[in-house]
Specification:
This protein is α+β, with helices and mostly antiparallel strands and 192 residues long. The protein has a single domain, classed as tt1808, chain A, CATH 3.90.1570. The chain has 4 helices and 8 strands. The protein has helices at 25-38, 91-99, 142-147, 156-173, and strands spanning 5-11, 18-22, 46-56, 59-70, 76-82, 108-112, 117-121, 126-131. It has a 6-stranded mixed β-sheet with strand order 3-4-5-6-7-8, with helices on both faces. A two-stranded antiparallel ribbon has the order 1-2. Strand 6 and strand 7 (117-121) form a beta hairpin. The protein starts with a strand and ends in a 19-residue tail after the last helix. Residues 175-188 have low confidence and may be disordered.
Length: 192
């Protein structure tokens, strides 16, 4: 996904702070609003533009995750990635980002283009739900969903494979970072 600056500032729905408007920021803001106002997620347990940082061959790389939902104790529950193409073509990249997520792996991931959505169980990549925006879970359903989707720690060998996969998607298939538009915000976890 290539995100470009629109050289304007808008008010962030989650934090109330000014953020740079980008070609995808309106979608990120709409998803945050939907999660809070329609799905019941507490605002203070959502973070936008969380950096998944990972090393490959001695260099550090970052893949930005559009939104993340956290438990009361700060554990990641759900990674949300907005995509500008068919959500199914983002499954492998999303699984890698979710498995490498700080404090994770996150047990659940959601990929959406704001019309179609896929809800994934991260541990095995199983598609739990497919369809329109109705597949976005309600906050009240998260405890049962997470309990049914345990995310055990990933072995170092498996983590290295996930780093390589995310590197390939982030640096080669998407054309690298988007001229700074996808840099993380200061807050990357609700506990920070």
């Amino acid at each position: 996904m290539h995100e470009e600056s629109l050289n304007r500032v808008i008010r962030d729905y989650l934090t109330g702070e000014d953020v740079e408007e980008t070609s995808y920021e309106e979608f990120r803001q709409a998803l945050a609003r939907l999660l809070v106002e329609e799905r019941g997620f507490p605002k203070d347990r959502l973070c936008a533009k969380v950096g998944v940082c990972f090393p490959v061959d001695g260099r550090d790389y970052t893949r930005m995750v559009d939104l993340a939902a956290f438990s009361e104790d700060g554990a990641p529950l759900l990674v949300v990635i907005f995509c500008s193409g068919e959500p199914g073509s983002y499954i492998r990249e999303t699984l890698a980002a979710s498995r490498l997520f700080p404090g994770g792996p996150a047990p659940l991931a959601l990929i959406t283009d704001t019309r179609e959505a896929l809800l994934l169980r991260v541990a095995d990549g199983h598609i739990l739900a497919r369809g329109g925006m109705r597949v976005i879970p309600f906050h009240d359903d998260m405890p049962a969903l997470v309990a049914a989707s345990p995310a055990p720690p990933v072995s170092e060998a498996a983590l290295e494979r996930e780093r390589r996969i995310l590197f390939a998607y982030s640096e080669f298939l998407s054309g690298g970072c988007c001229a700074g538009a996808c840099r993380p915000t200061a807050k990357t976890n609700p506990g920070d």
